Amino acid sequence: MKPTLVVLAAGMGSRYGGLKQIDPVGPSGESIIDYSIFDAIRTGFGKVVFIIRKEIETAFRKSIGSKFEKVIKVEYVFQELSKLPEGFQVPKERVKPWGTAHAVLMAKDVVDGPFAVINSDDFYGKSAFQLIADYLSSAEDAEYADFCMVGFLLKNTLSEFGSVSRGVSSCDADGNLVDIVERTEIRKENNNVFFVENEKRFPLTGEETVSMNMLGFTPSIFKYIEIMFIDFLKEHGKELKSEFYIPFVVDSLIKADKAKMKVLKSSEKWFGITYKDDKPYVVNSVRKLIDKGLYPNKLF
User: Fold this and answer.
1) DSSP readout, 16-54?
2) In sequence order, what are the residues at sequence separation of 6 or more whose Cβ sits closer than 8 angstroms to the Cβ of residue 147?
3) Eight-state DSSP code of residue 9
4) Per-residue pLDDT tens digits for 113-141
5) Residue 80: helix, strand or coil by DSSP?
6) Which of 259, 76, 299 lies closest to 176 in space, CA to CA?
7) What would the pLDDT profile of 182-206 be if each residue is shown by its tens digit?
């Protein structure tokens, strides 16, 4: 069975100031998502599921989905604040989404085999897609879950224009994930890399392996997300900004000895649009890849 690609595209790009998922970065008007889907198709994925918000559906289908519907199966699911387990309600003033684990859960009814999860605004590169597609092609949905992630070097994933969030990871001798910690404010200043927590700086080397939310799962992940989401809501459901992250789910399963996650290390130089000032760099980076013959001048 060909794996499915699940694209996290529900965010409106609050830091970027617009719907960055459909912002053109390629010479023929391509968005970062276009390059991801192009790479997914040529590395063996068989279906794409876009997780979006209902309010952007019309614009998204017109600008993104319509390009691919003739070359790969496309489905849409919606991440909405109100999609909660029975007995829970959204706090009156909450506007922030529930997080990446909640987003992935929205795809439960349209995914029936191994699948990869990616961010909509990250450019991962063909080799990264090939790594995860090859692994998922033999993944089995067993009781002891067999997951994977593509790991990138932290220094290859930073923005020059502000902080980024990364899942900082450590592995055992067999290349399986041992620990992953979500750092929500990693910065680079004067060649120094550090993360900020409780207004204090903690140094990093830049050589750490980090998750860019390029993750591979079997459908067993959904039952675990459902259970943990209920626990999350019991503890944090009345808060306005707490988020339920995929790294938390994965970390919990590994430590409970219910899953393993193979770390597939990529040397790709990530780039993405987190801030408006990132865009010229991304446009230039895409141009260089085209000039090297790695992508056509027009994708679709």
Assistant:
1) TTS-GGG---STTS--HHHHHHHHHHHTT--EEEEEE-G
2) 139, 215, 216, 217, 218, 221, 250, 259, 260, 261, 262
3) -
4) 999 999 988 899 999 999 999 999 988 88
5) coil
6) 259
7) 898 999 998 899 999 999 999 999 9
